[in-house]
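User: what does the whole thing look like in 3D?
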Amino acid sequence: MAIEIRPLEQFTIERLIPLHIGGVDVSYTNSAFLMTVAVLLITALLMLGTRKRALVPGRWQSVAEMSYEFVADMVETNVGHGGREFFPFVFTLFMFILFANFLGLIPYSYTVTSQIVVTFALAAVVFIGVTIVGIVRHGFHFLRLFVPQGVPAALLLLLVPIELLSYCIRPFTLSIRLFANMLAGHTMLAIFAGFAASIGLLGIFPLAINVLLVALEVLVAALQAYVFAILTCLYLSDAINLH
Amino acid sequence: MDLAAAKMIGAGLACIALVGAGIGIGNVFSALISSVARNPAAQGQVQPFAFLGFALAEATGLFGLAIAFLILFVF
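Assistant: Here's the predicted 3D structure for the full assembly of 318 residues, as structure tokens:
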């Protein structure tokens, strides 16, 4: 009994509500649905959690306050005092990616962040935003970011293009990191589940591995949201403090 | 050599990227352990960086894995 393993089937986008406006396909898909769910859950957690404003927080309020403080602390330590005004942006990014990753771990649901379109859009917003912030804050001085200090002039000829290149590939590394983690993790889960289903009673071993892999994926889901947020903070810090 | 065989070989070669990821993750945690063993009080300060390093090192291996998946299932 050979079961065909189709590990990439879970990433197909389905149109839930087909919708075409002027030849452009703007259907409400399962991806959009999961994004809506993520946003609604975050809003519910933060609004309902802090509704009572108790001095001694309950469970929900604790979670809401802890996530707030976690990101506020991250922005404070990585960007410094000038980063306070960017806290809402980083917090939104962190919570959205965290919830999208966690929702994707529910069996038969869909991982929003496993599509490079989504992660690249997020990374492009970060990249363009950071560049604009840097130019507005420093004007032409912003270009000093690409010139390392205390380096002989002959070496600058080599170093400036490297710095420029490493700045320009930031949106790609940022988006591919998140996308590849989610894609590889979920594909691996599907492959091991396929093994477990296809070899009968012995399938208990791949199943055991799969349980461990799910634990790893929970860790990775939280960690990648953290990494995305902290790299955004570091990029912001570059633009605001110029090294 | 037909296309299917070449695909299999290519995917296998792409998985070599995991060697680097393994070395990287091992390095990160060995450095964490030795630094915490020298100065246990620093654990709280050092641990977030270790997990950041872990995630960054792991991602490089996953790039290779993603390429392997692309070769196998997309092309």
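In plain terms: Chain A has seven helices and four strands. Chain A touches chain B at residues 7-8, 176-177, 179-181, 183-184, 187, 220, 223-224, 226-227, 230 (CB under 8 Å).
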